[in-house]
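MODEL INPUT / OUTPUT PAIR
PAIR INDEX: 1
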Amino acid sequence: MPQPPVAIVFDTFGSVVDWRSSLIAELTAFGAQRGIAADWAALVDAWRAAYQPSMQRVRVGEVPWQTLDELHRTSLDRLVAEFGIKGLTEADLQHINLGWHRLKPWPDSVAGLTRLKSRFIIGPLSNGNVSLLLNMAKNAGIPWDMIFGSDLFGHFKPDPETYLGVARLLGLQPGQVMMAAAHNNDLLAARKCGLMTAFWPRPTEYGPHQARDYEAEHAFDVVAKDIEDLATQLGV
């Protein structure tokens, strides 16, 4: 790595926050409180499985631009019906959908990001919308400098407009920005746009269904154990 970055942007779902455990815990508690029985873990896994296909329908023009909150809600409504979950009000569905705003960080995330913030501009570059990412940061104590949601660009990753849009908004060259993530494909797309790259694994992101991203599969600029180790390797 010849020069350190000026800014580091982070994939968020799975890389900074533990979406699966967070949603399963919240929905299990919700179901117990309301007396609504369901296989909440299976619902969460199916909900996440709908994530990429729902964004792809936007990318190819099958449906008009929608925020991730809107796509999540469409998927949730379909899955509640498919799982035969009864007794949910509209307020319940809104509350469940906003569970993505309340995801918990991995144990190293806040401490590592706080260290990195002391030297670099940091923010999420996520397919989440700005309001989702802002609420998540407030709930979890994530110390972003700025939030880059997909609705700023009208595109979802891995569209180049997202990675290049960050550099444009910050007044930087792509090579002055580092994309940091626990997902190889995200980093490959960023690297094609000229960004620096950093990887760390989250081997339990998908629980027993994890099938990829156990390790860096390419020669990224930094390969770390976690975000704290990323900070150490970058000298903070």
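PAIR INDEX: 2
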Amino acid sequence: MENFLTTKQVQDLFKIDRITVYRMLGDGRLKGVKIGNQWRFPQREVEKLLSGETIELPIVNESDSIFPIHCVQTIQDLFTSVSHYSAVIIDQKGEKVTQISQPGPICKLLLSTEKGREICEESWRNIADQAKVREQLFTCYAGLKYFGSVIQAQNIKQGVFLAGEFYLDTVDAEAEKEILRETVRLCGIDEQEIMNAYQKVPHLSQAEQLHLSAQPAAAANAVESILNERSAFMERLQQIASLTQKL
């Protein structure tokens, strides 16, 4: 698991004050994640800065105007390292915000083809439309199951935190395989490959489903906290800008 440093440790390493640490966080030179009320910084990213290695700043796109990508990606990766389930964040339109953490065997095969990527994108758009509550079960085009939780900021739906890539242990296995065969025909994937991947996908009992169902909501709460804090920070900046214009 990745090691993280505290704000004080970063201050000591760079011999800077706390405000400068936050400025570096804001302009993308530092990557961090907020855990509770405290910021934590990936040690390897800090070491890159210390060694003088160039840090690639994140590309700003429509999703990044709402989601601070490096922060939410870290939350998602931590979720996956603890839960051992694949995870991804999509925005309110179903566009993928983060890189998929620990994609499962079937997901990897689908994303390796152009048609498979189109199918995944269609599934994400459908899920974004359907997502209404905290704990919700979704099915993708290939028949795989995911639990999702709506992400809100200022009481407005901004996206969905998805976790899973599993089957229900009560569903007919032959029906699952037939859906995969149809997907294979559309995507041009070798049928034996997809069936080998199928054998590696977990079939969750009701108890396992219940345990997993609440976990995306906890991750969504962490993301929401960052979005709301960012929104409040931007409002304060606008207020300051407005005041300075009047001087």
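PAIR 2 NOTE: The longest helix spans residues 215-246.
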